[in-house]
Amino acid sequence: MKPTILITAPQHYSSRLEASFKRYQDQVSIVHIPMVQSTIATNNKQMQELCTHLHEYDFVVCLSRKAIDAMHYYGHNHDDLTQTQFLAIGKDNDYLQDKLGVTPPFIAEESSPLGIAQALEARGFTKGCRIVALSPAFVDLEEPQTVPVFIKRLKELNIDVQRIDAYVNMASELSERKKAYDLIIDQQISTVVFTSGSEVVAFKEGLEEVYGTDADSVLELIDVACMGPYTAAQAKLIGLKVDKIPTKFHSFDDLTAYLIASKP
Q: Were both Cys, which of 45, 54, 171, 209 would link to 80 (CB 3.0–4.6 Å)?
């Protein structure tokens, strides 16, 4: 019987992750239950104002694919878009070019927000550099450490950074998350895969709400995999065990290849 992998990514990411697993469909089965829903507000005054002041920034950093979608939603009619230097993470740079029609001035070697900070420092973009970071707001969901740590690092480099909440992350309905927990308890899942800190937090918060002090025991018989060290760090921070972390995490192809190679 093929092992079954549970993926918890939001809908706008999961289609790419599922496509990456297709080449291994004879070896594993995939179940998708998103832990997080991401939405773009239609009247975000910060984003509207940003689009009229793009020329004031050296870089606009899109910290997720949804941030790129938000930039497109608010900025696609602005001529300044192609005159602005945008940065993104990993394969999101391809999406940046497709969606906004802009080419990033460089791509960080490490696919993470801190990778962008390292690349900025290496190129001398520190004191006096003006950056706006497009990130999610969190509604009824504790914010993971990813963005705050990134902002803190930029400030340590004396970069003038402004954070704008370009879209909203919220946990999926508890009834939806419980479907994932039920599959795990029924031993129908061999591995659960988290691709972001938001998924980790939503999963753990729901788990504790449903099972209370018995929450940790739910994961005893399965593997927990995280896409890269930062998602893994968030999982460990809030008390989830982590069994698998790929050393290469530039793309979903890296992640799926690692999971297939490491499956029982």
A: 54
